[in-house]
Amino acid sequence: MSKNTDFFPIERNRYFYGKLLTVQDFDLEQRYGRQKGQLLNRLALGAGVVCGLGVSASDDSTLLIESGMALDYQGRMVVVEEPLLRKLQMLEGQEELLGHDTAYLCLQYAETDLVPVNAVGADTGESRQHNLTREGSRLYLTAQPPEYRRLLEAEGRENVSILYASQELTLVLSVPSAVCAGEEFTVEVLVVKNEKTPPVQFCLAGESALVDSEDGRVRLEFRESPEERRQVYPVRFRLKARQMTDVDSALFPSGGEIDLELGSHSYKNYVEVEARTRLCADSGQLEARRLNTDNLERHLWGRDLPIYLAKLELINSAGGVFLASVTNLPFRQRVGREDDRQSENNLQAVTTSVRSLEYWQKPDVKAVYQRSSGALHLDFGLPSPEQYDYAVSHGTVELTMPGGLRVNSRVYSEEIAHGLGPGTVDVRLSIEFEDQNAENETALCFGNCEVFKGKASPATPPWVEAAALVYPERGTMRVGLWLHDMVEGNRLTVHYFAQKPERDTSRLLTNRPVSIRVTPEFSRVSCRGRLQLQAEVTGSEDRSVIWSVKEENGGAIDRNGMYQAPELTGTYEITAVSGADPSVSASAFVIVE
Protein backbone atom coordinates (compact mmCIF):
# COMPACT_ATOMS: atom_id res chain seq x y z
CA MET A 1 0.00 0.00 0.00
CA SER A 2 1.03 3.59 -0.56
CA LYS A 3 2.62 5.72 2.13
CA ASN A 4 1.89 8.85 0.08
CA THR A 5 -1.12 10.05 2.08
CA ASP A 6 -0.22 13.62 3.07
CA PHE A 7 -0.40 16.82 1.02
CA PHE A 8 1.27 19.10 3.51
CA PRO A 9 3.64 20.75 4.04
CA ILE A 10 4.33 21.56 0.41
CA GLU A 11 8.09 21.88 0.19
CA ARG A 12 10.50 21.80 -2.72
CA ASN A 13 14.25 21.58 -3.07
CA ARG A 14 16.31 24.74 -3.22
CA TYR A 15 19.38 24.07 -5.33
CA PHE A 16 22.73 25.81 -5.14
CA TYR A 17 26.26 25.10 -6.36
CA GLY A 18 28.02 22.56 -4.23
CA LYS A 19 24.85 21.16 -2.65
CA LEU A 20 25.18 17.54 -1.58
CA LEU A 21 22.17 15.63 -2.93
CA THR A 22 20.96 12.66 -0.88
CA VAL A 23 18.11 10.16 -1.08
CA GLN A 24 15.93 12.55 0.94
CA ASP A 25 16.45 15.29 -1.63
CA PHE A 26 15.35 13.10 -4.53
CA ASP A 27 12.35 11.81 -2.50
CA LEU A 28 11.38 15.41 -1.80
CA GLU A 29 11.67 16.24 -5.50
CA GLN A 30 9.27 13.47 -6.43
CA ARG A 31 6.92 14.18 -3.53
CA TYR A 32 6.63 17.85 -4.45
CA GLY A 33 5.41 17.05 -7.97
CA ARG A 34 3.02 14.37 -6.74
CA GLN A 35 1.56 16.54 -3.99
CA LYS A 36 0.82 19.46 -6.28
CA GLY A 37 -0.77 17.27 -8.95
CA GLN A 38 -2.85 15.25 -6.48
CA LEU A 39 -4.04 18.32 -4.62
CA LEU A 40 -5.14 19.92 -7.88
CA ASN A 41 -6.95 16.71 -8.91
CA ARG A 42 -8.81 16.49 -5.60
CA LEU A 43 -9.85 20.15 -5.42
CA ALA A 44 -10.61 20.81 -9.09
CA LEU A 45 -11.94 17.46 -10.27
CA GLY A 46 -13.00 15.56 -7.17
CA ALA A 47 -12.92 11.80 -6.67
CA GLY A 48 -14.46 9.00 -8.71
CA VAL A 49 -14.31 7.17 -12.01
CA VAL A 50 -12.93 9.21 -14.91
CA CYS A 51 -13.50 6.60 -17.63
CA GLY A 52 -14.22 2.89 -17.99
CA LEU A 53 -14.19 0.52 -14.98
CA GLY A 54 -17.63 -0.88 -15.78
CA VAL A 55 -18.43 -4.11 -13.92
CA SER A 56 -20.57 -6.96 -15.25
CA ALA A 57 -21.20 -10.61 -14.45
CA SER A 58 -19.45 -12.93 -16.89
CA ASP A 59 -21.21 -15.86 -15.23
CA ASP A 60 -22.75 -16.55 -11.84
CA SER A 61 -19.37 -16.58 -10.11
CA THR A 62 -17.15 -14.34 -12.28
CA LEU A 63 -16.86 -10.54 -12.58
CA LEU A 64 -15.58 -8.69 -15.65
CA ILE A 65 -13.98 -5.33 -14.78
CA GLU A 66 -13.31 -3.12 -17.80
CA SER A 67 -10.10 -1.14 -18.08
CA GLY A 68 -10.25 2.48 -17.02
CA MET A 69 -9.01 5.20 -14.68
CA ALA A 70 -10.28 6.78 -11.48
CA LEU A 71 -9.14 9.48 -9.07
CA ASP A 72 -9.20 8.48 -5.42
CA TYR A 73 -9.93 10.80 -2.48
CA GLN A 74 -6.20 11.62 -2.30
CA GLY A 75 -6.25 12.83 -5.91
CA ARG A 76 -4.13 9.86 -7.03
CA MET A 77 -4.73 8.20 -10.37
CA VAL A 78 -5.89 4.60 -10.04
CA VAL A 79 -5.37 2.86 -13.39
CA VAL A 80 -6.64 -0.55 -14.48
CA GLU A 81 -4.66 -1.05 -17.68
CA GLU A 82 -6.61 -3.94 -19.20
CA PRO A 83 -9.92 -5.77 -18.62
CA LEU A 84 -9.85 -8.13 -15.65
CA LEU A 85 -11.76 -11.39 -15.33
CA ARG A 86 -11.94 -12.38 -11.68
CA LYS A 87 -13.68 -15.23 -9.91
CA LEU A 88 -15.28 -14.18 -6.64
CA GLN A 89 -13.05 -16.72 -4.90
CA MET A 90 -9.96 -14.95 -6.35
CA LEU A 91 -10.77 -11.52 -4.91
CA GLU A 92 -9.58 -10.22 -1.57
CA GLY A 93 -12.35 -10.26 1.04
CA GLN A 94 -14.30 -13.14 -0.51
CA GLU A 95 -14.25 -14.94 2.85
CA GLU A 96 -16.64 -12.25 4.20
CA LEU A 97 -19.38 -12.98 1.70
CA LEU A 98 -20.77 -16.24 3.05
CA GLY A 99 -24.15 -15.64 4.64
CA HIS A 100 -24.57 -12.15 3.16
CA ASP A 101 -27.06 -11.14 0.45
CA THR A 102 -25.21 -7.97 -0.56
CA ALA A 103 -21.56 -7.03 -1.07
CA TYR A 104 -19.54 -4.21 -2.67
CA LEU A 105 -16.62 -4.35 -5.10
CA CYS A 106 -14.20 -1.59 -4.06
CA LEU A 107 -11.20 0.01 -5.77
CA GLN A 108 -8.23 1.66 -4.06
CA TYR A 109 -4.81 2.99 -5.01
CA ALA A 110 -1.90 0.61 -4.30
CA GLU A 111 1.86 0.55 -4.80
CA THR A 112 4.20 -2.41 -5.23
CA ASP A 113 7.98 -2.35 -4.81
CA LEU A 114 9.86 -4.11 -7.63
CA VAL A 115 13.34 -5.17 -8.75
CA PRO A 116 15.43 -5.81 -5.64
CA VAL A 117 19.05 -4.72 -6.06
CA ASN A 118 22.18 -4.59 -3.90
CA ALA A 119 22.17 -1.53 -1.67
CA VAL A 120 25.68 -0.18 -1.07
CA GLY A 121 25.97 2.09 1.91
CA ALA A 122 22.25 2.01 2.78
CA ASP A 123 21.50 4.01 5.90
CA THR A 124 19.04 1.34 7.03
CA GLY A 125 21.74 -1.29 7.20
CA GLU A 126 19.94 -3.52 4.69
CA SER A 127 22.02 -5.05 1.92
CA ARG A 128 19.21 -5.06 -0.67
CA GLN A 129 16.58 -2.50 -1.67
CA HIS A 130 13.88 -2.33 -4.32
CA ASN A 131 14.79 -0.27 -7.34
CA LEU A 132 11.26 0.54 -8.65
CA THR A 133 7.81 1.32 -7.30
CA ARG A 134 4.85 0.40 -9.51
CA GLU A 135 1.67 2.39 -9.08
CA GLY A 136 -1.40 0.20 -9.41
CA SER A 137 -4.76 -0.68 -7.92
CA ARG A 138 -6.32 -2.88 -5.29
CA LEU A 139 -9.66 -4.60 -5.87
CA TYR A 140 -11.42 -6.12 -2.91
CA LEU A 141 -14.84 -7.26 -1.73
CA THR A 142 -16.61 -6.20 1.44
CA ALA A 143 -19.96 -7.16 2.89
CA GLN A 144 -20.01 -4.04 5.10
CA PRO A 145 -22.15 -1.11 3.87
CA PRO A 146 -20.42 2.25 3.41
CA GLU A 147 -20.20 4.89 6.09
CA TYR A 148 -22.93 6.86 4.37
CA ARG A 149 -22.33 10.11 6.24
CA ARG A 150 -18.62 10.23 5.35
CA LEU A 151 -19.30 9.09 1.79
CA LEU A 152 -22.03 11.63 1.04
CA GLU A 153 -20.26 14.52 2.75
CA ALA A 154 -17.14 13.72 0.71
CA GLU A 155 -19.32 14.10 -2.38
CA GLY A 156 -20.53 17.53 -1.22
CA ARG A 157 -23.79 16.64 0.60
CA GLU A 158 -24.56 18.49 3.83
CA ASN A 159 -26.36 17.66 7.08
CA VAL A 160 -26.34 13.92 6.43
CA SER A 161 -28.25 11.64 8.81
CA ILE A 162 -29.53 8.04 8.73
CA LEU A 163 -33.34 7.80 8.83
CA TYR A 164 -33.62 4.00 8.69
CA ALA A 165 -31.19 1.12 8.37
CA SER A 166 -31.77 -2.62 7.99
CA GLN A 167 -30.45 -5.45 5.85
CA GLU A 168 -33.16 -4.78 3.28
CA LEU A 169 -33.25 -0.98 3.18
CA THR A 170 -31.30 2.13 4.18
CA LEU A 171 -32.64 5.70 3.96
CA VAL A 172 -30.13 8.58 4.23
CA LEU A 173 -31.30 12.20 4.49
CA SER A 174 -29.25 15.23 3.41
CA VAL A 175 -30.32 18.86 3.89
CA PRO A 176 -28.47 22.00 2.68
CA SER A 177 -26.73 23.98 5.44
CA ALA A 178 -27.92 27.30 4.03
CA VAL A 179 -30.94 28.35 1.92
CA CYS A 180 -32.34 31.60 0.57
CA ALA A 181 -35.46 32.98 2.31
CA GLY A 182 -38.60 32.64 0.18
CA GLU A 183 -36.83 30.42 -2.38
CA GLU A 184 -37.14 26.74 -3.13
CA PHE A 185 -34.46 24.30 -2.03
CA THR A 186 -33.91 20.56 -2.38
CA VAL A 187 -33.89 17.92 0.33
CA GLU A 188 -32.58 14.51 -0.75
CA VAL A 189 -33.17 11.00 0.59
CA LEU A 190 -30.79 8.31 -0.69
CA VAL A 191 -32.57 4.94 -1.04
CA VAL A 192 -30.32 1.86 -0.81
CA LYS A 193 -32.14 -1.47 -1.11
CA ASN A 194 -31.62 -5.06 -2.22
CA GLU A 195 -32.83 -6.79 -5.36
CA LYS A 196 -35.59 -8.66 -3.49
CA THR A 197 -36.68 -5.70 -1.34
CA PRO A 198 -40.44 -5.05 -1.81
CA PRO A 199 -41.57 -1.64 -3.15
CA VAL A 200 -40.67 1.11 -0.69
CA GLN A 201 -43.17 3.57 0.74
CA PHE A 202 -42.24 6.12 3.39
CA CYS A 203 -43.38 9.40 4.90
CA LEU A 204 -41.17 11.68 7.02
CA ALA A 205 -43.26 14.33 8.75
CA GLY A 206 -42.91 16.90 11.51
CA GLU A 207 -43.23 20.51 12.50
CA SER A 208 -40.80 22.91 10.83
CA ALA A 209 -39.96 26.58 11.31
CA LEU A 210 -37.80 26.47 8.20
CA VAL A 211 -40.33 25.47 5.52
CA ASP A 212 -43.24 27.57 4.29
CA SER A 213 -46.40 25.43 4.67
CA GLU A 214 -50.04 26.00 5.53
CA ASP A 215 -50.05 24.06 8.79
CA GLY A 216 -46.42 24.54 9.77
CA ARG A 217 -45.57 20.91 9.05
CA VAL A 218 -43.40 19.20 6.46
CA ARG A 219 -44.32 15.89 4.84
CA LEU A 220 -41.76 14.11 2.69
CA GLU A 221 -43.82 11.32 1.07
CA PHE A 222 -42.56 8.77 -1.42
CA ARG A 223 -44.12 5.67 -2.97
CA GLU A 224 -41.87 3.52 -5.13
CA SER A 225 -43.28 2.31 -8.43
CA PRO A 226 -43.52 -1.52 -8.73
CA GLU A 227 -41.58 -1.15 -12.00
CA GLU A 228 -38.58 0.46 -10.25
CA ARG A 229 -35.50 -1.66 -10.93
CA ARG A 230 -32.76 0.51 -9.42
CA GLN A 231 -31.28 -0.53 -6.10
CA VAL A 232 -29.54 2.75 -5.20
CA TYR A 233 -31.08 6.09 -6.17
CA PRO A 234 -31.84 9.55 -4.72
CA VAL A 235 -35.37 10.83 -4.01
CA ARG A 236 -35.49 14.63 -4.19
CA PHE A 237 -38.11 16.85 -2.53
CA ARG A 238 -38.59 20.49 -3.47
CA LEU A 239 -39.47 22.69 -0.47
CA LYS A 240 -39.91 26.44 -0.09
CA ALA A 241 -38.11 28.34 2.67
CA ARG A 242 -40.02 30.76 4.85
CA GLN A 243 -39.67 34.47 4.32
CA MET A 244 -37.39 35.08 7.33
CA THR A 245 -33.74 36.09 7.57
CA ASP A 246 -30.78 35.41 9.81
CA VAL A 247 -32.42 32.37 11.38
CA ASP A 248 -30.76 29.05 12.16
CA SER A 249 -33.21 26.16 12.38
CA ALA A 250 -33.35 22.41 11.95
CA LEU A 251 -35.66 20.95 9.33
CA PHE A 252 -37.51 19.19 12.17
CA PRO A 253 -36.68 21.06 15.41
CA SER A 254 -38.72 18.65 17.55
CA GLY A 255 -37.79 15.56 15.58
CA GLY A 256 -39.58 13.91 12.73
CA GLU A 257 -41.84 10.86 12.58
CA ILE A 258 -40.97 8.31 9.92
CA ASP A 259 -43.71 5.94 8.75
CA LEU A 260 -42.30 3.19 6.55
CA GLU A 261 -44.04 0.37 4.67
CA LEU A 262 -41.94 -2.37 3.10
CA GLY A 263 -44.20 -5.04 1.65
CA SER A 264 -46.10 -6.45 4.62
CA HIS A 265 -43.70 -4.84 7.12
CA SER A 266 -44.61 -1.54 8.78
CA TYR A 267 -42.26 0.65 10.83
CA LYS A 268 -42.86 3.86 12.77
CA ASN A 269 -40.34 5.83 14.81
CA TYR A 270 -39.15 9.29 15.78
CA VAL A 271 -35.84 10.44 14.32
CA GLU A 272 -33.62 13.34 15.31
CA VAL A 273 -32.25 15.52 12.49
CA GLU A 274 -29.71 17.49 14.46
CA ALA A 275 -27.95 19.52 11.76
CA ARG A 276 -29.17 23.07 11.30
CA THR A 277 -29.85 25.22 8.25
CA ARG A 278 -29.26 28.97 7.92
CA LEU A 279 -31.96 31.16 6.34
CA CYS A 280 -30.22 33.89 4.30
CA ALA A 281 -31.92 37.12 3.24
CA ASP A 282 -31.04 36.87 -0.46
CA SER A 283 -28.86 35.02 -2.95
CA GLY A 284 -25.95 37.41 -2.32
CA GLN A 285 -25.93 36.64 1.39
CA LEU A 286 -26.26 32.95 0.61
CA GLU A 287 -23.23 33.07 -1.66
CA ALA A 288 -21.25 35.08 0.91
CA ARG A 289 -22.03 32.47 3.58
CA ARG A 290 -20.89 29.67 1.32
CA LEU A 291 -17.61 31.47 0.66
CA ASN A 292 -17.07 32.10 4.36
CA THR A 293 -17.70 28.48 5.33
CA ASP A 294 -15.69 27.05 2.44
CA ASN A 295 -12.31 25.69 3.51
CA LEU A 296 -9.63 23.22 2.53
CA GLU A 297 -10.58 20.62 5.11
CA ARG A 298 -14.10 20.39 3.73
CA HIS A 299 -12.83 19.56 0.25
CA LEU A 300 -10.34 16.98 1.50
CA TRP A 301 -12.90 15.04 3.55
CA GLY A 302 -12.88 11.25 3.46
CA ARG A 303 -9.34 10.78 2.18
CA ASP A 304 -9.32 7.02 2.94
CA LEU A 305 -12.65 6.21 1.25
CA PRO A 306 -12.62 3.65 -1.57
CA ILE A 307 -14.35 3.89 -4.93
CA TYR A 308 -17.40 1.63 -4.82
CA LEU A 309 -17.32 0.19 -8.34
CA ALA A 310 -20.34 -2.10 -7.97
CA LYS A 311 -23.03 -3.35 -5.63
CA LEU A 312 -23.39 -7.13 -5.85
CA GLU A 313 -26.52 -9.11 -5.07
CA LEU A 314 -25.51 -12.58 -3.88
CA ILE A 315 -27.07 -16.04 -3.74
CA ASN A 316 -25.87 -18.31 -0.94
CA SER A 317 -26.05 -22.06 -1.53
CA ALA A 318 -24.35 -25.23 -0.39
CA GLY A 319 -21.92 -24.85 -3.30
CA GLY A 320 -20.78 -21.38 -2.23
CA VAL A 321 -21.69 -17.78 -3.05
CA PHE A 322 -22.95 -16.79 -6.51
CA LEU A 323 -23.89 -13.57 -8.30
CA ALA A 324 -27.53 -12.60 -8.76
CA SER A 325 -27.08 -9.08 -10.18
CA VAL A 326 -24.55 -6.24 -10.48
CA THR A 327 -25.21 -2.48 -10.05
CA ASN A 328 -22.46 -0.22 -11.41
CA LEU A 329 -21.26 2.81 -9.41
CA PRO A 330 -24.14 2.64 -6.93
CA PHE A 331 -23.14 5.90 -5.20
CA ARG A 332 -22.42 7.89 -8.37
CA GLN A 333 -18.69 8.29 -7.66
CA ARG A 334 -17.85 9.74 -11.06
CA VAL A 335 -15.58 12.63 -11.94
CA GLY A 336 -17.08 15.30 -14.19
CA ARG A 337 -17.24 19.03 -14.75
CA GLU A 338 -19.53 21.03 -12.50
CA ASP A 339 -21.92 21.86 -15.35
CA ASP A 340 -22.11 18.14 -16.20
CA ARG A 341 -23.08 17.34 -12.62
CA GLN A 342 -25.67 20.07 -12.63
CA SER A 343 -27.22 18.76 -15.85
CA GLU A 344 -27.18 15.25 -14.39
CA ASN A 345 -29.20 16.49 -11.41
CA ASN A 346 -31.74 18.09 -13.73
CA LEU A 347 -32.13 15.06 -15.95
CA GLN A 348 -34.73 12.43 -15.19
CA ALA A 349 -33.68 8.88 -14.44
CA VAL A 350 -35.38 6.85 -17.17
CA THR A 351 -35.92 3.10 -16.80
CA THR A 352 -37.78 0.69 -19.08
CA SER A 353 -39.43 -2.71 -18.95
CA VAL A 354 -41.13 -4.90 -21.55
CA ARG A 355 -44.34 -6.90 -21.16
CA SER A 356 -45.30 -9.75 -23.47
CA LEU A 357 -48.82 -9.38 -24.88
CA GLU A 358 -50.95 -11.89 -26.71
CA TYR A 359 -50.43 -11.79 -30.47
CA TRP A 360 -53.93 -10.41 -31.02
CA GLN A 361 -53.45 -7.48 -28.62
CA LYS A 362 -52.34 -4.06 -29.78
CA PRO A 363 -48.92 -2.69 -28.74
CA ASP A 364 -49.09 -0.17 -25.90
CA VAL A 365 -46.84 1.83 -23.59
CA LYS A 366 -47.39 2.99 -20.02
CA ALA A 367 -45.46 5.84 -18.43
CA VAL A 368 -45.01 6.15 -14.65
CA TYR A 369 -43.52 9.44 -13.49
CA GLN A 370 -42.40 9.98 -9.89
CA ARG A 371 -42.45 13.69 -9.25
CA SER A 372 -40.49 13.42 -6.01
CA SER A 373 -37.50 11.68 -7.61
CA GLY A 374 -37.85 12.90 -11.20
CA ALA A 375 -37.77 9.27 -12.34
CA LEU A 376 -39.61 8.21 -15.48
CA HIS A 377 -40.42 4.55 -16.12
CA LEU A 378 -41.65 3.39 -19.53
CA ASP A 379 -43.41 0.02 -19.68
CA PHE A 380 -43.72 -1.31 -23.24
CA GLY A 381 -46.24 -3.99 -24.18
CA LEU A 382 -45.23 -5.93 -27.29
CA PRO A 383 -47.36 -8.61 -28.96
CA SER A 384 -45.87 -12.10 -29.03
CA PRO A 385 -45.36 -13.84 -32.41
CA GLU A 386 -48.69 -14.66 -34.08
CA GLN A 387 -50.20 -18.00 -33.26
CA TYR A 388 -52.24 -20.12 -35.65
CA ASP A 389 -54.89 -22.76 -35.28
CA TYR A 390 -55.11 -25.41 -38.00
CA ALA A 391 -58.04 -27.05 -39.76
CA VAL A 392 -57.16 -30.57 -40.95
CA SER A 393 -58.61 -33.05 -43.43
CA HIS A 394 -57.80 -36.66 -44.33
CA GLY A 395 -58.98 -38.87 -47.17
CA THR A 396 -57.98 -41.51 -49.72
CA VAL A 397 -57.72 -41.56 -53.51
CA GLU A 398 -57.65 -44.84 -55.48
CA LEU A 399 -55.67 -44.73 -58.72
CA THR A 400 -56.07 -47.45 -61.44
CA MET A 401 -52.78 -48.78 -62.73
CA PRO A 402 -52.20 -48.72 -66.52
CA GLY A 403 -52.13 -52.02 -68.42
CA GLY A 404 -48.95 -53.45 -69.93
CA LEU A 405 -45.49 -52.20 -69.00
CA ARG A 406 -45.70 -49.87 -66.00
CA VAL A 407 -42.03 -48.91 -65.52
CA ASN A 408 -41.53 -45.12 -65.71
CA SER A 409 -45.24 -44.50 -66.38
CA ARG A 410 -47.46 -41.87 -64.74
CA VAL A 411 -51.08 -41.89 -63.60
CA TYR A 412 -53.29 -39.01 -62.33
CA SER A 413 -56.56 -38.70 -60.42
CA GLU A 414 -59.53 -36.57 -61.30
CA GLU A 415 -59.89 -33.16 -59.64
CA ILE A 416 -61.25 -33.73 -56.14
CA ALA A 417 -62.15 -31.50 -53.16
CA HIS A 418 -59.75 -31.75 -50.23
CA GLY A 419 -62.46 -30.59 -47.78
CA LEU A 420 -60.86 -27.40 -46.41
CA GLY A 421 -62.42 -24.94 -48.83
CA PRO A 422 -60.71 -22.17 -50.81
CA GLY A 423 -57.29 -21.01 -49.72
CA THR A 424 -53.75 -22.29 -49.49
CA VAL A 425 -53.43 -25.71 -47.90
CA ASP A 426 -50.51 -27.97 -47.08
CA VAL A 427 -50.91 -31.50 -48.47
CA ARG A 428 -48.91 -34.58 -47.52
CA LEU A 429 -49.30 -37.88 -49.38
CA SER A 430 -48.58 -41.50 -48.44
CA ILE A 431 -48.82 -44.81 -50.32
CA GLU A 432 -50.76 -47.65 -48.74
CA PHE A 433 -49.31 -51.15 -49.14
CA GLU A 434 -49.24 -54.54 -47.46
CA ASP A 435 -45.93 -55.11 -45.75
CA GLN A 436 -44.93 -58.72 -46.45
CA ASN A 437 -42.15 -58.51 -43.88
CA ALA A 438 -44.78 -57.84 -41.20
CA GLU A 439 -47.27 -60.61 -42.05
CA ASN A 440 -49.05 -58.47 -44.68
CA GLU A 441 -49.88 -55.70 -42.21
CA THR A 442 -51.18 -52.51 -43.84
CA ALA A 443 -48.60 -49.72 -43.78
CA LEU A 444 -48.25 -46.17 -45.12
CA CYS A 445 -45.09 -44.92 -46.81
CA PHE A 446 -44.38 -41.15 -46.70
CA GLY A 447 -41.71 -39.56 -48.85
CA ASN A 448 -39.34 -41.36 -51.22
CA CYS A 449 -40.12 -45.11 -51.33
CA GLU A 450 -36.68 -45.80 -52.84
CA VAL A 451 -35.21 -45.42 -49.36
CA PHE A 452 -36.61 -48.84 -48.49
CA LYS A 453 -35.15 -50.64 -51.49
CA GLY A 454 -32.46 -53.20 -50.67
CA LYS A 455 -31.89 -56.58 -49.06
CA ALA A 456 -31.67 -55.14 -45.53
CA SER A 457 -34.84 -53.07 -45.87
CA PRO A 458 -37.38 -53.59 -43.06
CA ALA A 459 -40.33 -53.08 -45.46
CA THR A 460 -41.28 -53.62 -49.13
CA PRO A 461 -43.29 -50.59 -50.34
CA PRO A 462 -43.94 -50.14 -54.07
CA TRP A 463 -41.35 -48.01 -55.84
CA VAL A 464 -43.45 -44.97 -56.71
CA GLU A 465 -43.45 -41.21 -56.08
CA ALA A 466 -46.60 -39.21 -55.27
CA ALA A 467 -47.36 -35.51 -55.73
CA ALA A 468 -50.36 -33.21 -55.33
CA LEU A 469 -51.50 -30.30 -57.48
CA VAL A 470 -53.59 -27.82 -55.40
CA TYR A 471 -56.05 -25.23 -56.77
CA PRO A 472 -56.43 -22.62 -53.94
CA GLU A 473 -59.31 -20.69 -55.55
CA ARG A 474 -61.48 -23.79 -56.04
CA GLY A 475 -60.48 -25.69 -52.91
CA THR A 476 -59.58 -28.77 -54.99
CA MET A 477 -56.54 -30.86 -55.90
CA ARG A 478 -55.28 -33.65 -58.17
CA VAL A 479 -53.01 -36.51 -57.12
CA GLY A 480 -50.38 -38.02 -59.39
CA LEU A 481 -48.10 -41.10 -59.23
CA TRP A 482 -44.81 -41.79 -60.97
CA LEU A 483 -44.16 -45.53 -61.23
CA HIS A 484 -40.46 -46.41 -61.16
CA ASP A 485 -40.98 -50.19 -61.25
CA MET A 486 -43.64 -52.80 -61.82
CA VAL A 487 -46.51 -52.53 -59.35
CA GLU A 488 -48.59 -55.55 -58.47
CA GLY A 489 -52.37 -55.37 -58.71
CA ASN A 490 -54.66 -52.98 -60.57
CA ARG A 491 -55.02 -50.18 -57.99
CA LEU A 492 -52.96 -48.13 -55.55
CA THR A 493 -54.50 -46.30 -52.59
CA VAL A 494 -53.05 -42.87 -51.80
CA HIS A 495 -53.80 -41.21 -48.43
CA TYR A 496 -53.82 -37.42 -48.28
CA PHE A 497 -53.45 -35.29 -45.15
CA ALA A 498 -54.31 -31.61 -45.66
CA GLN A 499 -54.06 -28.75 -43.15
CA LYS A 500 -54.91 -25.08 -43.40
CA PRO A 501 -53.80 -22.35 -40.94
CA GLU A 502 -56.61 -20.28 -39.44
CA ARG A 503 -56.55 -16.84 -37.84
CA ASP A 504 -60.01 -16.99 -36.31
CA THR A 505 -59.15 -14.84 -33.29
CA SER A 506 -62.60 -14.99 -31.79
CA ARG A 507 -62.62 -18.78 -31.87
CA LEU A 508 -59.10 -18.96 -30.44
CA LEU A 509 -60.07 -16.64 -27.61
CA THR A 510 -63.19 -18.65 -26.90
CA ASN A 511 -61.08 -21.78 -26.49
CA ARG A 512 -58.42 -20.04 -24.38
CA PRO A 513 -58.90 -20.48 -20.60
CA VAL A 514 -58.86 -17.42 -18.33
CA SER A 515 -56.70 -17.61 -15.19
CA ILE A 516 -55.80 -15.28 -12.30
CA ARG A 517 -52.78 -15.16 -10.01
CA VAL A 518 -52.77 -12.94 -6.92
CA THR A 519 -49.47 -11.77 -5.38
CA PRO A 520 -48.35 -11.94 -2.69
CA GLU A 521 -50.20 -15.15 -1.87
CA PHE A 522 -49.37 -15.02 1.84
CA SER A 523 -48.58 -11.83 3.77
CA ARG A 524 -48.31 -10.47 7.28
CA VAL A 525 -49.49 -7.00 8.22
CA SER A 526 -50.06 -5.13 11.46
CA CYS A 527 -53.52 -4.13 12.68
CA ARG A 528 -54.86 -1.21 10.64
CA GLY A 529 -51.89 -1.65 8.33
CA ARG A 530 -52.06 -1.46 4.54
CA LEU A 531 -50.95 -3.92 1.88
CA GLN A 532 -50.88 -3.62 -1.92
CA LEU A 533 -52.08 -6.76 -3.76
CA GLN A 534 -51.64 -7.43 -7.48
CA ALA A 535 -53.81 -9.61 -9.75
CA GLU A 536 -52.34 -10.97 -12.99
CA VAL A 537 -54.99 -12.05 -15.52
CA THR A 538 -54.05 -14.24 -18.49
CA GLY A 539 -56.18 -15.60 -21.32
CA SER A 540 -58.25 -12.46 -21.82
CA GLU A 541 -57.79 -8.94 -23.08
CA ASP A 542 -60.00 -7.82 -20.18
CA ARG A 543 -57.55 -7.61 -17.26
CA SER A 544 -60.03 -6.19 -14.73
CA VAL A 545 -60.82 -7.95 -11.45
CA ILE A 546 -63.32 -7.44 -8.64
CA TRP A 547 -61.73 -7.49 -5.18
CA SER A 548 -63.47 -8.62 -2.00
CA VAL A 549 -62.72 -9.78 1.55
CA LYS A 550 -64.35 -13.10 2.37
CA GLU A 551 -64.73 -12.51 6.13
CA GLU A 552 -67.33 -9.98 7.24
CA ASN A 553 -65.00 -8.09 9.59
CA GLY A 554 -61.81 -8.86 7.70
CA GLY A 555 -60.99 -5.31 6.64
CA ALA A 556 -61.55 -3.57 3.31
CA ILE A 557 -59.97 -3.54 -0.14
CA ASP A 558 -60.44 -0.97 -2.89
CA ARG A 559 -60.70 -1.57 -6.64
CA ASN A 560 -56.95 -1.08 -7.07
CA GLY A 561 -56.09 -3.91 -4.68
CA MET A 562 -55.07 -1.75 -1.68
CA TYR A 563 -56.03 -3.73 1.43
CA GLN A 564 -56.77 -2.02 4.77
CA ALA A 565 -56.39 -4.47 7.67
CA PRO A 566 -58.95 -4.48 10.52
CA GLU A 567 -58.24 -3.88 14.19
CA LEU A 568 -58.82 -7.54 15.02
CA THR A 569 -56.00 -10.03 14.57
CA GLY A 570 -56.58 -13.15 12.50
CA THR A 571 -56.21 -14.72 9.07
CA TYR A 572 -58.35 -13.29 6.27
CA GLU A 573 -58.94 -14.38 2.68
CA ILE A 574 -58.83 -11.82 -0.14
CA THR A 575 -60.52 -12.87 -3.41
CA ALA A 576 -60.09 -11.51 -6.95
CA VAL A 577 -62.80 -12.41 -9.50
CA SER A 578 -62.17 -12.01 -13.23
CA GLY A 579 -64.19 -9.31 -14.97
CA ALA A 580 -64.06 -11.34 -18.20
CA ASP A 581 -65.21 -14.63 -16.63
CA PRO A 582 -66.90 -14.43 -13.19
CA SER A 583 -66.40 -18.17 -12.73
CA VAL A 584 -62.63 -17.65 -12.50
CA SER A 585 -61.15 -16.40 -9.24
CA ALA A 586 -58.01 -16.57 -7.08
CA SER A 587 -57.32 -15.90 -3.42
CA ALA A 588 -54.59 -14.58 -1.15
CA PHE A 589 -54.35 -14.88 2.61
CA VAL A 590 -53.34 -12.09 4.98
CA ILE A 591 -52.29 -12.66 8.58
CA VAL A 592 -53.13 -9.61 10.70
CA GLU A 593 -51.07 -9.51 13.88
Q: What is the overall shape? A: flat
Helix content: 10-25%
Give me the Rg, rounded. Answer: 38 Å
Distance between the termini: 54 Å
| Unreliable residue runs | 337-347
Number of strands: 41
Structural class: mainly beta
**Biggest sheet details:** 4 strands, antiparallel
| Total DSSP helices | 6
Mean pLDDT: 84
Major sheet strand order: 8-7-20-21
Beta-strand content bin = over 45%
How would you concisely characterize the structure shown here?
Helices cover 10% and strands 47% of the residues. It has 593 residues and is mainly β.
Task: Write up what this structure looks like.
By secondary structure, the protein is mainly β. Helices cover 10% and strands 47% of the residues. The chain has a four-stranded antiparallel β-sheet, with no helix packed on it. It has a four-stranded antiparallel β-sheet with strand order 9-10-12-15, with helices on one face. A four-stranded antiparallel β-sheet has the order 14-13-17-18, with no helix packed on it. The longest helix has 23 residues, at 23-45. The radius of gyration is 38 Å and the shape is flat.
List the helices and strands and how they pair.
Blueprint lengths: L22 H23 L2 E5 L2 E5 L2 E4 L2 E4 L5 E4 L3 E4 L14 E17 L9 E15 L5 H7 L5 E6 L3 E6 L3 E3 L3 E10 L6 E8 L9 E7 L8 E9 L6 E4 L5 E7 L2 E7 L4 E5 L2 H11 L2 H4 L7 E11 L2 E9 L9 H9 L2 E9 L6 E7 L4 E9 L5 E12 L8 E4 L3 E2 L8 E10 L5 E6 L17 E8 L4 E8 L7 E12 L2 H7 L3 E5 L2 E4 L4 E3 L1 E5 L6 E5 L6 E2 L4 E3 L5 E9 L6 E8 L1
Parallel strand pairs: 11-19, 22-24, 34-41
Antiparallel strand pairs: 1-4, 2-3, 3-6, 4-5, 7-8, 7-20, 9-10, 10-12, 12-15, 13-14, 13-17, 16-19, 17-18, 20-21, 23-24, 25-32, 26-31, 27-31, 28-29, 28-32, 30-31, 33-36, 35-39, 37-40, 38-39, 40-41
